[in-house]
């Protein structure tokens, strides 16, 4: 326990506490002092608050690493510059392309893209539904004087109404069942890859690759179980279905900051990396002294010289230049030339 | 990474680029490696085409303290208990190219459209099953050799495997060894 306090990252702890408190405050505001809060969802709420704390803590620790910090600062610097409109619109485009549609995965494998897209879309839509419900931000009430019209309220304000039994009500009340199907299909596609691809089989792990998929399927199946229970079993197994679903979801929430699911939040850094490249090109390219060709942006090379020093590497050469001024091909050639010279000096090239 | 593998720690990877004849057999074989997704990760090219026919071949050297992993902003690169530095974890890699530009051996490659870094991971699908990496099995001049230290010392009595490199004052130690003239302890690159 003492070790836990000794290794505690104070900055991250403060930020995570603020984030968790912000959620609590927003729950109070959004649910009108808990008036609209659904007490049945209390376990989900605590799980979510823990997840927010853990994700904020890990994100903060992650941002303190020199290369991550540099990308974060550079992204913010370029975004909030005189080119704000250009970069903001580019970020929105990338948000759709890379985060919501994960297009980059299609270039790795089309089947993998389908699997991941279904999985991610199902999960993101489920988040979008459950989080506001858990926080008490969304609740439904009957229209006064009516038994057929339902009102949807957001933060206590009426935002829409629909007829009970109509298409909208079916979609609204069964939305989580609908989102569970893409999750299951996506997870099965990803699992299939994990039993067929030799390279994946060699490098995968149970906790890092299989358990997240199993857990997502468990969440979806137990969620469907709740619907199955009240549709076909008259709610006779409701307790069991509700508890097993709650257990799987809360496991997911608690695990989120630690395991594979954290990549959902890390992926946003890809937007920054893209902006960094665009701005870097504007500022000028680095030319390799060996190949005489452009190979990276000069901003990137300069930043990397700083970052490598911060993480304990100094590639400065005797003439004041840096090994990092060379392109990858230039570096390989420099190594081959040094090896050739060493062999030449020994008088024997082979043996 | 899974720990229950048949990775043989007695086996080592030894390279000698003066033996490279530029045949590209390793490149073709590398593309067969399943951990690369059928992309060739090995680098083979002329050193200075205008003045020399010298070619060079480069695999990942699997550094003890990998610069690529240190500069990765996404924590996507990891080293396992056998000292193998693995290619970027696909779910984490953000395609920033930090590793590509920081590796002193010029090894990682960026797959631009896939926004993903990929590199040689010593044919982990094979080495973890007790087999040799693809490139080393096909290299006709044995510029790439995978075997025990005793085997290579017997084959190359006038050479010694070296695992220390200097780039300026920066020392880099590697799992993969380079064959140097007898008596050498390191290779100073610049």
From TrEMBL, chain A:
InterPro entries: NarG-like_sf
Keyword Cytoplasm assigned: no
Domain of life of the native organism: Bacteria
Coiled coil among keywords: no
Keywords assigned: Membrane, Transmembrane, Transmembrane helix
Segments crossing the lipid bilayer: 12-29, 41-59, 117-138, 164-189, 210-228, 240-258
Annotated protein name in UniProt: MFS transporter
TrEMBL record, chain B:
Enzyme class: oxidoreductase
GO molecular function: 4 iron, 4 sulfur cluster binding; metal ion binding; oxidoreductase activity
Signal peptide per UniProt: none
CDD domains attached to this UniProt entry: DMSOR_beta_like (cd16369)
Gene3D superfamilies in alphabetical order: 3.30.70.20
Keywords carried by this UniProt record: 4Fe-4S, Iron, Iron-sulfur, Metal-binding, Oxidoreductase
Enzyme Commission number(s): 1.2.1.2
PANTHER family associated with the record: PROTEIN NRFC, PROTEIN NRFC HOMOLOG
Protein name per Swiss-Prot or TrEMBL: Formate dehydrogenase O beta subunit
